[in-house]
């Protein structure tokens, strides 16, 4: 694993190792397994960023589950635009189902502030939110987050599904921008 990397015009330093990430994923999966024992939740990763986290999370789930994806974006470069673009929606009937929305990172909360009510309007039994990373100091909405892997400072990061203008999603570790 490299200690520093360059993506486009920015340099980044190693911030969270693959082992730390997988430990957080395993702990979250343990909680979800307990909470959903005997149930079959619909796991709904929000693409693109959550694909690596969602993949590892469902591998650790022992409760029965189904998976469906939605695609949403509110980032351009290193900042959130605050505008949500939803491109692909849930195709399954979710009425009466337990839904777990899976995010890679929650910072401003604007994306989920629109997705959660839209999902609740479909009539599920419950809607929970799981995120690998949470930036509490960046949060600008009133959002309930049910499962948090790690709280981090309000710094721009890449890797493990997170990108900088499309680059870095494939990295196994998470890197923080060097100011």
What does it look like?
The protein has one domain: Rossmann fold (3-Layer(aba) Sandwich). A hairpin with a 2-residue loop joins strand 5 (70-76) and strand 6 (79-88). The protein contains three helices and eleven strands. It is globular and about 45 Å long. Strands 3, 4, 5, 6, 7, 8 and 9 form a seven-stranded mixed beta sheet that branches. Strands 1-2-11-10 form a four-stranded antiparallel beta sheet. By secondary structure, the chain is α/β, with parallel strands linked by helices. The protein has helices at residues 18-35, 51-60, 110-120; strands at residues 4-7, 10-16, 42-47, 66-67, 70-76, 79-88, 98-106, 126-134, 147-151, 157-158, 174-177. Helix 1 crosses helix 2 (51-60).
Write a short abstract of this structure:
With 179 residues, the protein is an alpha/beta fold. Helix content is 22%, strand content 36%.
Task: Give the key terms.
11 strands, 22% helix, globular, seven-stranded mixed beta sheet, 179 residues
């Amino acid at each position: 694993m490299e200690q520093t990397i360059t993506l486009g015009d920015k340099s980044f330093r190693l911030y969270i190792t693959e082992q730390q990430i997988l430990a957080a994923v395993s702990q979250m999966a343990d909680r979800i397994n307990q909470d959903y024992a005997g149930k079959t939740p619909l796991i709904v990763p929000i693409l693109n960023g959550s694909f690596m986290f969602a993949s590892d999370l469902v591998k650790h789930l022992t409760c029965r589950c189904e998976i469906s994806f939605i695609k949403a974006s509110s980032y351009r470069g290193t900042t959130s635009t605050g505008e949500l673009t939803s491109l692909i929606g849930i195709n399954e009937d979710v009425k009466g189902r337990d839904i777990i929305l899976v995010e890679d990172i929650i910072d401003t909360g604007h994306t989920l502030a629109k997705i959660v009510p839209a999902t609740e309007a479909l009539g599920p039994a419950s809607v929970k939110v799981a995120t690998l990373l949470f930036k509490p100091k960046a949060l600008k909405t009133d959002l309930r987050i049910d499962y948090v892997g790690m709280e981090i400072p309000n710094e721009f990061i890449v890797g493990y599904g997170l990108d900088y203008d499309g680059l870095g999603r494939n990295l196994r570790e998470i890197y923080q921008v060097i100011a």
